[in-house]
Amino acid sequence: MVVPLIAVAAGLLFTTSATTADGTALREDRRPQLAQLIEDRRERVEASDKRRAALLAQVEAETDVLAGSDQPIAEQQTRGDKSRQAAGFTALRGPGLTVQLDDAPRLGDTNRPGNPSNDDLVVHQSDVQAVVNALWAGGAEAMSIMDVRVISTSAVRCVGNTLLLHGRVYSPPFKITAIGNPTALQQALATSEGVQLFRDAVSHFGLGYRETVEGSVTVPAYDGSSALNSVEVPE
């Protein structure tokens, strides 16, 4: 009696699977489709960036024309130009420091001392933020992450072991460049608790950390959106 019952149950399972699949493979690998979706979105973002740059150039050109005959516009344009460098809208060149953070190499993690978890072997948002904060505290005049200018409104976010910055995703190693006094910047990194924690992990788990003194390096101008969702005037 048991055998017929098992046969009936198996038949129901086969029928349910066939109905659910509807002619498709239930265990089909979806990774190629996901990769294509990511690539499509990346191309759309790049196309939008190009269109935004073209529109911005058009607005600036028309503003220059109006400034030639409209005194109030010319005055505001001059006022804005004086603040462009401080706001990060112009490229800056000078001495500084580059810091590179990297995940630990894949060397058979089960054999590593201390039995680390996967989280112990990758660079986290807090690690990147610790370096950025230390460099600002050390007197950095300008800074870029992955050759992208960061300003006061820039947010550093991590998605897994990738970095999300200004709507784009970057993979390690993460390069952070700051313009300023190299000695002061190195001292700020050395006294940062967050940076020291990462350097301890470098010693324990083999993550990558490198400081490079730059005699002359260029930090590009910020070319992202300057729109603010909200502002608050300090008292």
Automatic annotation (TrEMBL):
Signal peptide: 1-20
Pfam families on file: DUF881
Transmembrane segments: none
Key words, A-Z: Signal
Residue segments, region Disordered: 99-119
PANTHER family: CONSERVED MEMBRANE PROTEIN-RELATED (PTHR37313:SF4), UPF0749 PROTEIN RV1825 (PTHR37313)
Family: Belongs to the UPF0749 family.
Name of protein: Membrane protein
Species assigned in the record: Phytohabitans aurantiacus
